[in-house]
Amino acid sequence: MIKKESTMTISEWEIMRIVWTLGEVTSHQLIHIMSKKQLWTPSTIKTLLSRLQKKGFLIHNGAVRDRLYSPTISEHDATSQTLSQTVQMMCTKCVGPALVNVINETTLTKRDITKLISMLENKKITASTSIACNCMPKNQEDLSL
Amino acid sequence: MIKKESTMTISEWEIMRIVWTLGEVTSHQLIHIMSKKQLWTPSTIKTLLSRLQKKGFLIHNGAVRDRLYSPTISEHDATSQTLSQTVQMMCTKCVGPALVNVINETTLTKRDITKLISMLENKKITASTSIACNCMPKNQEDLSL
DNA sequence: CTTTTAAGTCTACAAATGTAAACTATAGAT
DNA sequence: ATCTATAGTTTACATTTGTAGACTTAAAAG
Hints:
2 copies of one chain form a homodimer.
Chain A: H1 10-22, H2 27-37, H3 42-54, E1 58-60, E2 69-71, H4 75-88, H5 92-104, H6 110-126
Antiparallel strand pairs in A: 1-2
The structure holds a DNA duplex.
């Protein structure tokens, strides 16, 4: 079966961040936490919760009331996937510089940095000085019309 | 005046990639190119073109007909900005690993790699072993209810 | 046991997005 | 000068998203 590959919206992502942090949450907790932080009413939280379930990002223990909601995907995985998807729609030539920029403005742990450096040192060996732009399919570059 | 900070949608981004590549385009070219690549009709292309103008991402030379559309933002800038925005909605703790992942699966030029490494070497000096998670505002961690 | 509170479900509604047809007017063809 | 193809403009319509009220029902309070 084909994965429907539904994505989280910004608002849904906000909810998920709390769920990820707490592991298991009741709507009660969500409502309490989010109603302060955001300008969301309990209704809105409930709707978001429903949609996240429909999309398969949340499940709950069968309780009829005060059920515990939990994520079906880890925050790390979701983060990686989302970032990958974003990068994939971009021009291969622009991604490098953009990553330089992002990394520059991101706080990283020593561990991450070490990992990145070793990974990059490795890539450096086979890297070329330029990469092809994938902005337009090759065959359609005849614009003479 | 406050920047309206409108964002490009996926479809709009597709159009922009062609515009960025060509620098200046007529709708004619876009229609020709995109109708093959995507399953878009001329109408759809025109709509997207209109919206991109309304959002301020495209302008055109005043021609009444066969006008030339051009971008108001460079592809590099748009790419960087979009990536930054994406990263900003994510948990600071997850961004590092996600970046490791993305960089692993991304083709980079020697130049980019060198830049990244030197930047990282620098960051390494002041980096700590762990960073605070920004998933939930500190004050709202009392979930005792 | 009755009342109240609130969790979960349904319905609502505007704005944004994906997708495109209909209409208008003009540059180029005849 | 008239016709035709089509660039640009309007209108359209289903889905998704942001946001939330209304309704139902069970748990907690009294």
